[in-house]
Design brief:
By secondary structure, the chain is of the alpha+beta class. The chain has helices spanning about 1-25, 30-70, 85-95, 120-130, and strands spanning about 135-140, 140-145, 150-155, 155-160, 165-175, 180-185, 190-195. The strands form two sheets. The protein has a four-stranded antiparallel sheet with strand order 4-5-6-7. Strands 1-2-3 form a three-stranded antiparallel sheet, with no helix packed on it. The longest helix is centred in the first third of the chain and has 37 residues, at about 30-70. The radius of gyration is 51 Å and the shape is rod-shaped.
Length: about 200
C-alpha cells in the first residue's frame, strides 16, 4: 500500500513539473508580421498543386473540346444533300395533281397506256441480248454451247429473263460455227434466229 501511495505521489509531482515546464518553454504568440508571411507562403505551397490542376485541365480541354462544345455542322460539303432544284424537279414529276373536289380522285393529265407485251422476233432478240453466249466445246463427238456459264447441247432448253418475264429458248441446230435459237413459248409466238459463233 505504501508503494502504491509513493507511486501516485511521484506521478502527480511529475505532472506538475511537466505543466510548469510547458508553460515556461512554450513559444509566445507570433507577431502579426509573422502571420502575414505564413499566409503568403501558403499560396506558394499550393501553387505546384494548382499548376498541375491547370495543366491537367488544359489537356482535358484539348481532348474533349469538340465533345463538350461541338462546332456547328457545315452541310455545304455534304455529298448526300439533295439540292433544292433537284428536290423540286423530283416532286413535280412524282406527285399527281391534287383535286380541289374531294369527292373525285385526282387523275394525272397524261395517262400512258400499258405497252403491249413483246412477242416473236423482238422478244427473241431481247432474250439473246441479255443471255451470255460463250464458245463451243466438242467432247466425244458432241458439240456443246456455253450459255450463261453452263454447257448445252442441241435440243436443250434454257431460259432468259426479259422485263421480269422468263422466256424459254431452245437450241434447234448447233455447229462449231453457228447456232440456231428458237422461242419455246406458245404465248410469245414463233421465231428463230441464227447466230454466227466466232
Amino acid at each position: 500500500m505504501k508503494s502504491q501511495r509513493s507511486q501516485i505521489i511521484t506521478l502527480v509531482s511529475l505532472l506538475v513539473i511537466w505543466a510548469i515546464s510547458w508553460r515556461i518553454v512554450r513559444s509566445p504568440t507570433p507577431p502579426p508580421s509573422v502571420i502575414k508571411t505564413a499566409a503568403a507562403k501558403a499560396p506558394v505551397q499550393d501553387s505546384p498543386l494548382k499548376a498541375r490542376f491547370h495543366r491537367v485541365r488544359a489537356e482535358m480541354d484539348g481532348l474533349y473540346h469538340y465533345r463538350i462544345k461541338p462546332a456547328p455542322f457545315d452541310a455545304s460539303g455534304n455529298p448526300f444533300k439533295i439540292s433544292a432544284s433537284m428536290a423540286i424537279s423530283e416532286v413535280s414529276h412524282d406527285t399527281a395533281p391534287v383535286s380541289k373536289d374531294l369527292t373525285k380522285p385526282a387523275v394525272p393529265d397524261t395517262v400512258q397506256p400499258l405497252a403491249a407485251p413483246e412477242g416473236g422476233e423482238v422478244l427473241l432478240k431481247h432474250a439473246i441480248e441479255v443471255t451470255k453466249i460463250g464458245g463451243v466445246v466438242t467432247m466425244n463427238d458432241t458439240t456443246q454451247l456455253t450459255v450463261d456459264g453452263q454447257l448445252h447441247k442441241e435440243g436443250d432448253l434454257f431460259t432468259a429473263r426479259v422485263h421480269s418475264r422468263l422466256v424459254g429458248i431452245r437450241i434447234k441446230k448447233l455447229t462449231t460455227t453457228s447456232v440456231t435459237l428458237a422461242l419455246d413459248d406458245p404465248d410469245a409466238g414463233t421465231a428463230e434466229m441464227r447466230i454466227r459463233l466466232k
